Fold:
Amino acid sequence: MGNVASAMSMSLDGFVTGPNDGRKHPLGEGGAVLHDWLGKTATDADRAVLQEMVDGAGTILMGRRSYDSCVGEGGWGDGGPAGDVPCFVLTHEPPAEAPKVFTFVTDGIESAVAQAKAAAGDRTVGIHGATAAQQALAAGLLDEIQVHLVPVLLGDGVRLFDLLGASPVNLTRDRVVEAGSGVTHLRFRVVR
Ligand SMILES: NC(=O)c1ccc[n+]([C@@H]2O[C@H](COP(=O)([O-])OP(=O)(O)OC[C@H]3O[C@@H](n4cnc5c(N)ncnc54)[C@H](OP(=O)(O)O)[C@@H]3O)[C@@H](O)[C@H]2O)c1
Structure:
């Protein structure tokens, strides 16, 4: 079975969006800078990190807020965040219609990870969205955390690690890429 890895761009003060994220500003007000390394300011090192994620992606798992921010016209178009890579979306109420790459999961994180892993085979399940990632971590289902650390302080928004409580989660850092764009790509294994 493949790896289950969260992969998100984060500000130095721990936010994966600026304030008021949603359809108008998927990364919140002022938060678009978090994804500049994917295009606007990308260096060869940034592109290599991105390519590795694209090549390894078997499925993507996200929460409903991430889905609502970018689905359809003006966002991902007819596909998902990685084109036709299958995506699993945690939600309490599936939408009436959705592009065919999306499967909606209403029976919790364990079920969502199991379905995403089965569909990914030997490839990676990439978890997007802070809520989904923290649930997977708390349930002992996350193998790896990738943080693309962006040199900005956003001050407000959605925090990547806000719901975990006081129990320490031990990590082993296994890669650091200083991309030259100012972004530091960090990769950690979760110690179980
Ligand atoms: N910086 C980055 O690299 C990056 C990457 C990905 C996403 N993002 C941003 O992150 C933001 C969203 O993150 P988020 O953490 O606020 O939300 P999220 O994880 O995307 O979605 C949370 C929502 O998913 C549903 N959900 C979550 N767990 C569930 C469960 N166990 N059972 C049923 N439904 C469940 C609930 O929606 P319902 O109750 O409405 O169904 C919940 O409100 C978006 O703005 C997105 O653009 C940033």
Observations:
- The chain has a mean pLDDT of 96.
- Residues 3 and 124 are 5 Å apart (CA to CA).
